[in-house]
């Protein structure tokens, strides 16, 4: 029977009464799946709001996972989720995601997020609370727009939006001053903001040393 997040938190709370290994708002989980990596210097204390967001992804998309930590591939540092692979492929999710919960905004310490090959047609407004995000891979979905809130993700260095259904780019996109790689191929673009070429720090016609284009 799939354990609910509430059961996990209750069990962990009782466990902590004897061991007190975690600060407030963190849950100690000792039995970790192989898909979870805890970076050096960290322990098995996990931020409750991060666990809630992962559990909401499972619930909304009617997935079958034993615990939130079994979802995709996860890397944690100091109790916060830093690296999350939830693309629909090996090492990602078992079935395509069709919706992201509002609680996705809880993952505000996330640095890299992989969501390729899902069925996402939109992003919740809270998605733009992921202000520490540096790499976002969300190609091969069904996205129909990029929200104006994209400008809040101003730490983005790599953004892959290829193979979606996006017709236009909002003016706020021009505020992504750290964006170096932007892949946008195979969309339905018919409009670009005037500020685009002058504002972004992208080598539009060049490739990097490994042969990857900065813009495609």
TrEMBL record:
Keyword annotations from UniProtKB, A to Z: Leucine-rich repeat, Repeat
Gene3D superfamilies: Ribonuclease Inhibitor
Gene Ontology cellular-component terms listed: cytoplasm
PROSITE patterns cross-referenced by the UniProt entry: LRR
Pfam families linked: LRR_8
Keyword Repeat set for record: yes
Name listed for the protein in its UniProt record: Leucine-rich repeat-containing N-terminal plant-type domain-containing protein
Lineage of source species: unclassified sequences, metagenomes, ecological metagenomes
